[in-house]
Structure formats: C-alpha cells, structure tokens
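Q: Got a minute? One more chain.
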Amino acid sequence: MAKEKQARTSQHAAELIILDQPSIETCFDRADKMKPCPIGHEGACCKNCYMGPCRLVGKDAETTAKGVCGATLPVIAARYFARMVAGGTAAHGDHGRDMAFTLLAVGEGHAKDFKVKDVKKLYRTADILGIEFEGRPVLDVAKDVASKMLEDFGRQRGEMNFLKRAPKKTQERWKKYGVVPRGMDREVVEVMDRTTMGMDADPDSILDSAIRCALANGWGGSMISTDFTDILFGTPMPIKAEASLGIFKDDEVNIIVHGHEPSLAEMIVEAVQEPELIAYAKTKGAKGINLGGMCCTANEVLMRHGIPTAGGFTNQEPAIMTGLIDVFTVDVQCIIPAIVDVAKHFHTKIITSSDKVKIPGAIHISFDENIAKDQARQIVRMAIDNYPNRTKKGSHVTEKFPMIGGFSHEYIEYMQGGSWRGSFRPLNDAIAAGRVRGVVGLAGCDNPRWPSTGVHKFLATELIKNDVLIVSTGCSSAACGGAGYLTPENALENAGPGLREVCEAIGIPPILHLGACVDNSRILTIAAAMAAEGGLSDEIGGMPAVGIAPEWITEKAVSIGVYFAASGVPVIFGGESPVSASKEVTRILTEVWFERYKGAFVFEPDPEQMLAKALEFIDKAREALKLKKYEPGKFGTEKVLMDMAARREIEKTSRAHIGL
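A: Always. Here it is, folded:
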C-alpha cells in the first residue's frame, strides 16, 4: 500500500509527508477506499427522476435498453455529459460575474480598496464593446464596461459580446449549426431543462445545447473573468517565483490563499507587506510573514506578484501536514472539505471567505469588497496570533523549484516584436517553417486516482522534446512548476532543436504559464490572433494545436474541453470516457464534432497514446494546411525570429515614436 501511495502522490515532498503521517487520511487514501461505480463511470446510469436510478447495462444496451421513462442509453449518456458542462459553466460563469460586480463597484466608487491598474486593457475592452473611452474619467469607463458585460449573464436573445473576438469563419460555423450562445444563465438553465426527464430525447440535440453552454463559458464567463482581473490587478508579465511544498518557512508566519477568485488574495498580498503587521509578527517571535498560494488563486497572485505556489489540487492536505501553515484561507472551487479534518491534527486555522463555500469546523469571514483591506488585515493578524501555537510534529519539506509565470496574450504578442510591432507573425512563421511542430494547451486538475501530476510531467517532457510549444494553465502549471519545468533552461536541456532555437531567440521557457483555469480563455484569444495574423489557418479550426487535460476531475474541465472542441481545437482527456457506454454519443463527440467544427473530444487512458494522438492531430493539421512536413532537426525555410537585441531596438524606436 505504501508503494502504491508513493507512486500516486503529487511530488517527492508530498510522498514523505503522507508516509510520515500514516494516521492522517488524505485524498489518496480515500481514492484507495472508494472505487468508482462502474455503471455511472461509463455514463449508463440515470438518476434525473425518482423512477430511477435506471441502469442501462447488457450486451445490446446501446440499441435495446431503456429507462423507465423510455430514454435510451445514448440519451442518458448525452444528458449526463451535458449536465457536467452546465455545472462547469455555472462555476466559471459565477466567477466571471463576481469579477464583473467588483469592477462595477470600483466604477461606482464603492470598493475603495480596489482600483483600475491596467487602464490600457480597460480601454481595449471598451473598444471591443463599442464603448467610448477617449477623454472620459477612467472610473466612468470601468462602470460602463462592467455594466455592458453583466448583460451577458442574463441576456435572453441575441449574442454574447465577446463572440465577435473569434475569427469570422469560426463564428460562421457556430451560426450554421445553431450553437451561438445568448446569455450564460440562459444556456445553463436550458441545458438543465432539456436534460430533465420527459424532455429532449435526441442525443445530438442535447449535445448542441451543451456546446452553446460551453461557448458561453469560454467566450463569456471565463473571458470576462480574465479580462476584468487584468483590468483590476494588472495584466501579467513574466515574473520569477518558486513552487512546491518547500515554500513554507520555519521561522515566519505562513499563510496560504487557496481557491480561484483573486480579490481577497490581492488584498492579503498588500497586507502582508505592511510594516505594522510585519512588526506585529516579530512581537510573536516570527522573523516575518510568508504568503503562499494553492490551486488557481495561487496562479492569480503568482502571475502578478511572484507569490510562490505550494501546488495544485492534491497538495492541499499535504501542505497542512507540513505543520507550518498558520492560516489556510479559501475562497471558491476545488476546496477539499477534509482539510478541516487534517487541520485538527495541527494548529492550522481554516478560514472560508465566500458565502458559497462554508465548511463545518472552519472560521467563516464573509468577503465584502467594501472593506476588503480590513478583512485581509484581520486574517493576517489571526495567522500571526496563531504562530506561537505551531507544533513541530509536521513533516517539514525544504526542496523547491524556481519558475517563471506571467505569459498573458498581451505579453506573448509583445515578446515577438515589442509594443510597436508586436504580432503573432514570428510564431506563425516558426510553425509554418517546422521549427515549432505545433502548440498544445496543457491544462486541468491533478487527480489522486492517477500517478498524481505524473502524466502532466510525462506529457510536458515528451511534447517539448518533439518541438511542441506548450501553453499551460491551472493545476497543470503547478505540476510543471513543482517539477522545475517552467524555466528557460528547460528548453536548453529538454526541448527539440527547433523549439529550442525559438525559445533561445525570444528568451522564454518551452512551457508558458498562462494563469488560472479561467485563463484558458487566453488560449482562445491567442488562437484567434494567430488566425487573424495569417500564414496558417484562417480560423481556429485546422490549426496544428491540441488541448490536453491528462488528469481532469471537475465539471469545469469538461466545459473547457467542449468550448475548445467547438472552437476548433481537438481535445484529449485522460482516463476512461464518462460516456463510453454509448457508441453514438462517442461518435458525436469525435467524428461529428470534428466534421462540423474541426474540433473533437477524445478520451484516452494511456499517457503514451495521449502523446501519440496529440502529435497525430498536429501532423494531420500541418498536412491539411500544406505546411512543410515536420522533420526533427530540419526547419525548412531560413526565417529567423528576432533576437533580444533586435527586440530592444524596436522597443527603443517605439518609445521614441510615442514620445517616451
């Protein structure tokens, strides 16, 4: 059992903690004890009414089995899949709604602790929305932008605002097949309505509604969250940080921010730097205050401030087991309720901050954006007061890894030619020439039922070796960061010769950390910009690009996968298919969606096959675009990306041009 547990823990540090604390149960132990229901695991169980649950099993279940209401296996599997999409869209959409309300409060002058930090991005967003911004007060523009985007949640007819950011040909495909989303709430409600007992009995129709719902997430809720977070807290630029459970310090107060929404975390970042609180910590015997992150709240503050990350989903319990965390504060999503039980073995205080997330045994401080800084100070003081209660029975870890994050759409464009001539042409040229074989979005959770984070690491290593540029988000970024992969040196040591040349010319890692899981929307806008640049596909569909979620867990991941597939990107999810019981639903997700949108949704349990399928999708796309055949070490035409000296010269000219 110990060896199995070692094989599945998220990193060496986590292994030591779990093995040193055999009496404390973690998600790895629960995964051992709780085996998935084999019928539900394949999507063959329906519990949408009290005539059931109905289990459709047997050799000919696909064609002969029916639930009590008469629903066939394909209908039941499609309903199940669509409801996962609706759940994921609701989660990310609500995140976007909260950020919109925060921006609105700032615009109205209520949330005094927040301000617009990226005025340029506010103006770019206003321009997309057709809102006048020249000569107007910044807060007035912020109010109008927030109000306009809040319409996207309750709109009953028409189209969501950010859909216009997709390439025209991609938009035409959505219109042709009737999957243009109207409003996020409308699409979530309609999926739940359609999949109720006695409603839609056509699997293809049900899955169309799932696509509309997912697109409302990717080009709506998540994109709103990404843009508004940048506007409020700054658009990320490359920044150094550290990763792993070794970020905690024995002689300092340790605070963790965990979850997905950054508003309170941003205030805590500011509070821990206040001289008064640092001085107060010293009165308790601590040398200072150390802030770390977990999951996507970690990614948010890492991307903007260089706050170190302790890891992803499976590391939250092992982090407490270090015995070094004084306050563990959580906001929304991916919070393991059992952290409260683990904390009982130590001195750690668990604080919940969202009224949507309450856990018995935790201290609840309801986040109020109007008094955000005061609440942050309260939390920091609680951590300081708890520092003297720290025990020494935890498993302390010292190993940590350097990393670089902060690669936003805007910076990737800038790094290819400066602020004056920034574009995606160099990347397109590198792909066309064969230096870069293609691009993979590596995303999703880390799963205790897998060799946790191990599949992320395997794919990251093998993809860059095959000259594939990786853009990563969420827990995948944490996995790569905790393995030491998010540095430029990784390109020199492990990347294929073509990708290495590109990384050296620009000065970037071969894996670009784009942020939190809502920031998968950055991949959409990057893909749209590459299509607009020309030289490859004139739509997102058909590009040599693939999305992979190798250890996915949540409904959010399914929603993300669907909006990528519907936007034209084939996606590969690790593990057995949750709809494998139905051949018809599987055919729709793969063959039908690829024919309609040039994107497909594929499930694959074998990591080596995930790699092979990703490379096959990329190579077939290259062939269809009539790009030069990829050959390792042979890069085709002699187009060269700008080196750092050339970029600095362009930037110098650009600054002179605008009078700086």
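A: The chain is about 50% helix and 10% strand.
Q: Perfect, thanks.
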